């Protein structure tokens, strides 16, 4: 939770939406995306409490209800494909129904946050902040060359792939990430192509020593490493979620500290690395010894 007053005065919903649009104009979204105000209460709504989340799941929805949230800003849009009904037959429909029932507004910025300077991709690129020489958009916005999707980063000096891994783990606060090492290279990194989320549509055919993204298909990874590009994958939402803490502070200031802003504690990536405790038999010199070990899955 951001450090602001416990009894905020609140701001009308339409003004909050205007502030969000000013921060990241909806015209910056990719053509396929569904961004902006997705659920709007019919009555005039004063926003005193906002919950930020990467994904609006049922657990996050319950958290919003417990916190008596007036508005949820979810990075990924809850409503993407058209809904033909709002029933209890699917988890997304149930969440929409609860938002309507409790008069909770829902806003999604998604790819507008990817495109802007100081947004999600710049946050991910800041993994290399103190060794970063420059960073430019990969898929440049046609109306403003300073905006766009992905970032092509040039480092001041080459770093090892092992250092890059440690930087990513620290920046994303992840204990484990996935690495595919490029074939027939010295393992040193001078250029990094970054794209939060599922980045192959932006990264494909970009020449760089390293791709950093959330997820890629198996064959796209194989293609990259055979072309001399190492790949680091964090899981989709783990390449995005860390930006929310930065945005929470920015949003608090943009709203003149009149709104309480929470970052969801229930919002997590659905994929986790598990450790299984096992007992197994070790045969050695005709003796059998029982030992305990750990395997990673």
TrEMBL record:
Gene Ontology terms for molecular function: metal ion binding
Family of the protein in this entry: Belongs to the GTP cyclohydrolase I type 2/NIF3 family.
PANTHER family, per database record: NGG1 INTERACTING FACTOR 3 (PTHR13799), NIF3-LIKE PROTEIN 1 (PTHR13799:SF13)
Native source organism of the sequence: Apis cerana cerana
Record's GO cellular component terms: mitochondrion
Source organism superkingdom: Eukaryota
Protein name listed in UniProt: NIF3-like protein 1
One protein family per Pfam: DUF34_NIF3
Gene3D superfamilies found in the cross-reference section: NIF3 (NGG1p interacting factor 3)-like
Keywords: Metal-binding
InterPro entries: DUF34/NIF3, DUF34/NIF3_sf
Binding-site positions, a divalent metal cation: 76, 114, 236, 240
């Amino acid at each position: 939770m951001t450090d602001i007053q416990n009894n905020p005065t609140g701001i009308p919903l339409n003004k909050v939406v205007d502030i969000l649009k000013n921060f990241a104009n909806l015209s910056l979204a990719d053509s396929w995306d569904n961004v902006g105000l997705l659920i709007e209460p019919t009555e005039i709504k004063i926003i005193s409490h906002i919950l930020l989340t990467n994904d609006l799941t049922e657990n996050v929805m319950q958290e919003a209800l417990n916190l008596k949230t007036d508005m949820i800003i979810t990075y990924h849009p809850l409503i993407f494909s058209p809904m033909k009904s709002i029933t209890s037959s699917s988890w997304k429909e149930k969440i929409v129904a609860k938002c309507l029932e409790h008069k909770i507004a829902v806003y999604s910025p998604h790819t507008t946050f990817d495109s802007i300077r100081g947004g999600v991709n710049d946050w991910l690129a800041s993994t290399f902040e103190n060794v970063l020489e420059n960073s430019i958009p990969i898929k440049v916005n046609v109306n403003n060359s300073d905006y766009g999707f992905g970032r092509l980063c040039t480092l001041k000096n080459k770093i090892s792939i092992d250092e890059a891994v440690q930087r990513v783990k620290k920046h994303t606060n992840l204990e484990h990430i996935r690495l595919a090492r490029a074939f027939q290279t010295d393992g040193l990194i001078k250029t990094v192509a970054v794209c939060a989320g599922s980045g192959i549509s932006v990264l494909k055919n970009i020449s760089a020593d390293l791709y950093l993204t959330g997820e890629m298909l198996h064959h796209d990874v194989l293609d990259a490493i055979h072309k001399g590009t190492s790949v680091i994958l964090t899981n989709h939402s783990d390449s995005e979620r860390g930006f929310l803490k930065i945005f929470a502070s920015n949003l608090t200031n943009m709203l003149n500290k009149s709104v309480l802003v929470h970052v969801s504690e229930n919002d997590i990536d659905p994929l986790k690395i598990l450790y299984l405790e096992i007992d197994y038999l070790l045969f050695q010199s005709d003796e059998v010894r029982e030992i305990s070990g750990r395997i990673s899955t």
